[in-house]
């Protein structure tokens, strides 16, 4: 729905095409531009509610015979959507901030990690811009921590923003070498530092604001390609 409460183009298209939310078109655009999810990919979707990215990720795997897997994790219980998903999609109800690396690895195919990690996690906004930005950065850094491992990350940011949960003592991440990471953040002074952390870890890190993002939103996505 638009800010005025009337259906917008992406909302109507989502309903027409069977997606559970308009956010599906954000990942669709990312896929068209970067083609991160391919046949046989193993995908981890952090903050998967309500399931639109699960749908697009599964579609991107291609026919069932091509293999691949999609695992969604959310603090809410998420039912796998009936449309655009198949047996390759599963969901887990858990708090990402409290999950240990080994628990996540157990969810991956052959326990070998994931080739693509999606983080569409967003904090419960308080309306206080600086606070919301800090919370968003914390979630983003947790996704990065799970992906690449704590050993390569700073203990805390220069702005004293907490960057990772204390529960994961592992130094290894769950993203396979050459894998890709997508992280949603809220635009703020923190995002420059976030990209600076990612730059040496990945072959390329670039910003994207999908067309389906609402005009009033501060959401922006960091597309990290090719884990070094």
TrEMBL record:
Active site: 184 (proton acceptor)
Pfam families: FtsJ
Keywords in alphabetical order: Methyltransferase, rRNA processing, S-adenosyl-L-methionine, Transferase
Domain of life (superkingdom): Eukaryota
Gene Ontology molecular function terms on file: rRNA (uridine-2'-O-)-methyltransferase activity
Presence of keyword Lyase: no
InterPro entries, alphabetized: RNA_methyltr_RlmE, RNA_MeTrfase_FtsJ_dom, rRNA-MeTfrase_E, SAM-dependent_MTases_sf
Domain Ribosomal RNA methyltransferase FtsJ residue range list: 19-226
Family membership: Belongs to the class I-like SAM-binding methyltransferase superfamily. RNA methyltransferase RlmE family.
PANTHER family registered for this protein in UniProt: RIBOSOMAL RNA METHYLTRANSFERASE, RRNA METHYLTRANSFERASE 2, MITOCHONDRIAL
Protein name listed in UniProt: rRNA methyltransferase 2, mitochondrial
Species per Swiss-Prot/TrEMBL record: Fraxinus pennsylvanica
